[in-house]
Amino acid sequence: MKVTYYPGCSLEGTARDYAQSIEGVCRYLGIELQELSDWNCCGATAAHSLNHRASILLPGRNLVLAEGLGNDLVVPCPLCFNRLKTAEKALLEDGGEDDFGVAYEGKIRIHDLANFLARNELLDLIQQKVSRPLTNLTAVCYYGCMSSRPPKITDSSEHENPTSMDRILDRLGVQVKPWSHKTDCCGASHAVARRDIVFTLVEGLYDKAVEAGADCIVVSCQMCQANLDMFQGKIASEFGKPYYLPVLYFTELIGLAAGLAETGEWLKKHFTEPQPLFNRIGLSA
Amino acid sequence: MTQTSRLTPETGFMEHIEASTGIRISACFQCKKCTNGCPVTFAMDVYPDQVIRLIHMGMRDQVLSCGTIWVCAACETCTTRCPNDIDIAGVMDYLKERAVASGVSIPQQRTKLFHEAFLNDVRRRGRLSEGRMLQSYMLKSGELWRKIKDGEIGEEISLGVNMFRKGRMSLIPKGVRSKSEIRAILK
């Protein structure tokens, strides 16, 4: 199976662990990722906040490039996914091409990576590759905002209660706990200019994850990962609560369950080190 | 002595936004579902339902100069849940762009500077270098000097060192080949 792959900017920087785990897992599953040649930034929150036109044209350029390759487009970053989907809708609606001067015909589909890997045939493949089920691991799946909302853009059929990661982790043997905050916001890029907002939101997420009985939080978004992982010690001391919740990518858990040797390298990049948790439950990375 | 303040509504303000964005703000019947589901109301000066109401009343200056439009995290919960299909997060975006264009005083200056630093960095190479964007933001916003003065800089440095040590910071930024296409978009 061959797909076009749009990594997005942070997978070349703060989220290299996510990038490596995606490449490793897809190679193992026999999914060929062809990186979109000469892709550009989707514009993210900055563009849709300050320059509406650029917020369509930047992802629009990527869509045109991807359509030229012909295969479906797989996107790990939920914000990139959301911006590409927003551009898709804007360019394909009546008059869209005239408004923006971009000829995109919509011949390809745009997939959020977690939803793509949670399709039944891939779930079966993922399960077949499990060499050591993660039965002692208790987790909550945290989806954040952008792969789900608004459903008019994302085409999600389960936007209030997404289940892609739940279904994947279930096949890995993980004990997945239900919880209330699957799609609550982490504050995203407010981490730069209004870190106080992020800390307040993330504290609430930690509390709910602990209340659900989770040992770790599993994510598919590198912004959520950064906000929940990098500041955990600081948030714990600021709010006077001894949080210890490793924040793991779902792809890292696929690697762990499949016994991929490189998984340990991915996990070393985390600030909240998962090793103490793995030691406690008898799991080696 | 009693002081009276004069309200100066701008008639046609709402109609103008509706025509520019295609978002039907007039459909709001003030159920407040947007505000009740909003995760960041604790940091807002005006609630989302009030922003919509102020637009109804033509209170242009109050709306464009409020902090709320910059505090909105664009999580899209309000847009998703509005029973009248109003893209409230889209209205917040429109208002931010218009606030900058109209030159009103912006209460959340740092958030605006962050977005600008982000787009400036993308304009240079077509892709974002998180490290370079942050350096530029810290200088332009005055946060670098404030953090030095307040003794918070040590924390930032240790975060940066840890990111580098853990391989989560790229030193050589990547870019696109067709830079002219990006510059044409981000004029």
Explain this structure to me?
The complex is a heterodimer of chains A (285) and B (187). By secondary structure, chain A is of the alpha/beta class. Chain A folds into two domains: 2-114, Glutathione S-transferase Yfyf (Class Pi), Chain A, domain 2; 132-280, 3-Layer(aba) Sandwich (Rossmann fold), CATH 3.40.50. Chain A has 16 helices and eight strands. Chain A has a four-stranded parallel sheet with strand order 2-1-3-4. In chain A, helix 1 links the parallel strand 1 (2-5) and strand 2 (32-35). Chain A is globular and about 60 Å long. Chain A starts with a strand and ends in a 5-residue tail after the last helix. Chain B has 187 residues and is mainly α. Chain B has two domains: 13-102, Alpha-helical ferredoxin (Fumarate Reductase Iron-sulfur Protein, Chain B, domain 2, Orthogonal Bundle); 109-185, no CATH class. Helices cover 57% and strands 0% of the residues of chain B. In chain B, helix 8 (109-125) crosses helix 9. Chain B is globular, with a radius of gyration of 20 Å. The model of chain B has no long low-confidence stretch (mean pLDDT 94). At the A-B interface, helix 2, helix 3, helix 10 and helix 11 of A face helix 6, helix 7, helix 8, helix 9 and helix 11 of B.
